[in-house]
Known about the structure:
335 residues; alpha/beta; Rossmann fold; eight-stranded mixed beta sheet; five-stranded antiparallel beta sheet; 13 strands; binds adenosine-5'-triphosphate; Oligopep_ABC_C; nucleotide-binding; AAA+_ATPase; ATP-binding
Amino acid sequence: MEVLKTEKLKSYYIFEMQxxxxxxxxxxxxxxxxxxxxxxxIAGESGCGKxxxxxxxxGLAEPPLRIVDGKIYYEVEGKEIDITKMSQEEYxxxxxxxxxxxxxxxxxxxxxxxxxKESFKDFxxxxxxxxxxxxxxxxxxxxxxxALGLPLRVLKSYPHQLSGGMRQRTTIALATILNPRIIVADxxxxxxxxxxxxxxxxxxxxxxKIQKNTIILVTHDMAVHANITDRxxxxxxxxxxxxGETDEIFENPLHPYTKFLIGSLPKMGDKSYKVSAPGSPPxxxxxxxxxxxxPRCPYAMEICKKERPQLVEISxxxxxxxxxxxxxxxxxxxx
Length: 335
Ligand SMILES: Nc1ncnc2c1ncn2[C@@H]1O[C@H](COP(=O)(O)OP(=O)(O)OP(=O)(O)O)[C@@H](O)[C@H]1O
């Protein structure tokens, strides 16, 4: 079952520069569905709109960022609710039970002058009325931390007394204490060493297993996607250019951009030279006509310079936005 869905979503940064109106098309016509009980990954180079997409679906678009078109549906008690039509007050009530956002650099978000337990208390009491502190706060908190393998001593610590990895795991525990249906995490492993990265990934996996919620995970690290996500979407220049089961995307990438992302991953024993996509991504304030990847694509055809390919299903649940990937061509290539 779908838990969140976007339809033709466009969200742009709109501002004036030197008396000229600028539009940065950071999310440009995105229609995707996220399912219950899955880990959905979003990958793509820096600046392709991943964080903006997350902010938009979490109802956090604030000027200069504006939703200029499209819909965002949450599935609440069997009904699809378009949050772009909700008042701020209605949305605020729904949000924390439904979706929890762990922004980039969140490990520095814990209040530095209070102990961790106080941060948990502030967070829980601002979203829930508590009468019996022991039963409704202390006990569930200890249970939550223990289930996630975090030592209870963190509660007595100040943020600066914890390592970066432990701080990040604590932030994730905080963001998930109210058991939201969707957890949205933006680059949660960046700036951590490999051991701490692994612990954070394991924590996300554990939470998903225990709480059975949906996780939407943004990272440019393809190895993390291979390790943890069930399905994934590849973003390029504000668009989703490929989507499918993670195993299928790694085994059989369709879009030339995805092939570059996967091809640049090191493999054990492989000493061959890794080729990354030539050139750099376009400015989202002045996108090229046609497919935004065509200036960097070694297979670009005439049509790619004129028309923008749509994200269409090529094989079971595997979608691509590329004129090379028409169903017939892919089937021929597989023969
Ligand atoms: N406040 C802002 N005003 C104008 N443009 C912005 C603003 N914030 C981001 N952008 C632009 O929007 C585009 C998408 O940025 P976004 O942060 O969503 O990309 P990203 O894929 O998450 O990159 P990263 O991995 O580096 O965070 C970029 O071109 C960025 O420069």
